[in-house]
């Protein structure tokens, strides 16, 4: 299996929207049209928040992406911000879109509180990491994660953090040496049912002497 890594390109957007939509199971909380809009809002928001990108391509098909941000060097391109705003506007045009967008707002507030609890001055953030379900447990996730570590060390960034939750395979980050710093439980009402989730902030201390795993 030959995996190719390259920088994010605009034509990757729709394929990545589908991966995001499937990974976070948006179709379980709303209709398919709104689920697609939710995924567009999430992805376009992440694309306002990076200085480093790597897309995993397998047999000419996009199967994953990782984004990281050097906090001091980050400047969001105007076109990315416009794309984000248009995606948000499209979501808010429907009653269901406005309803489910509250979940995004709640998660954003939880993330802010988790980061506020950390007294560490972070150099960087891992702002998006997602791999298609068809390619999980194949090593693609590890390859993408290692690309971020190499980027951090090239840039001499001391540490980075990420947000995750129980809807994801958060154990992966612990296997890669990340430390869980804080967590918060939150209850959502989804389709008139109570859904309990835990949200986490993890961080990683870079040593700037990382060597690529040859195995």
UniProtKB/TrEMBL annotation:
PROSITE patterns: GNAT. GO terms for molecular function: acyltransferase activity, transferring groups other than amino-acyl groups. InterPro entries: Acyl_CoA_acyltransferase, GNAT_dom. It comes from Thomasclavelia cocleata. It comes from the Bacteria. Residues 3-202 form the N-acetyltransferase domain. Pfam families: Acetyltransf_1. This is N-acetyltransferase domain-containing protein.
């Amino acid at each position: 299996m030959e995996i190719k890594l390259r920088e994010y390109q605009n034509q990757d957007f729709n394929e990545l929207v589908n991966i995001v939509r499937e990974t976070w199971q948006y179709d379980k909380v709303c209709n398919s049209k709104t689920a697609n809009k939710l995924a567009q809002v999430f992805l376009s928001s992440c694309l306002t928040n990076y200085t480093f990108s790597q897309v995993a391509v397998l047999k000419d098909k996009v199967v994953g992406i990782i984004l990281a941000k050097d906090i001091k060097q980050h400047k969001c391109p105007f076109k990315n911000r416009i794309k984000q705003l248009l995606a948000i506007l499209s979501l808010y045009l429907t009653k269901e879109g406005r309803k489910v967008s509250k979940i995004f707002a709640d998660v954003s507030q939880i993330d802010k509180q988790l980061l506020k609890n950390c007294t560490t001055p972070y150099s960087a953030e891992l702002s998006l990491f997602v791999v298609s379900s068809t390619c999980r447990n194949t090593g693609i996730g590890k390859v993408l994660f290692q690309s971020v570590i190499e980027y951090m060390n090239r840039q001499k960034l001391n540490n980075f953090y990420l947000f995750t939750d129980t809807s994801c395979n958060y154990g992966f980050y612990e296997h890669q040496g990340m430390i869980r710093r804080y967590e918060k439980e939150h209850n959502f009402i989804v389709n008139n049912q109570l859904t309990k989730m835990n949200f986490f902030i993890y961080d990683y201390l870079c040593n700037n002497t990382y060597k690529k795993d040859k195995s």
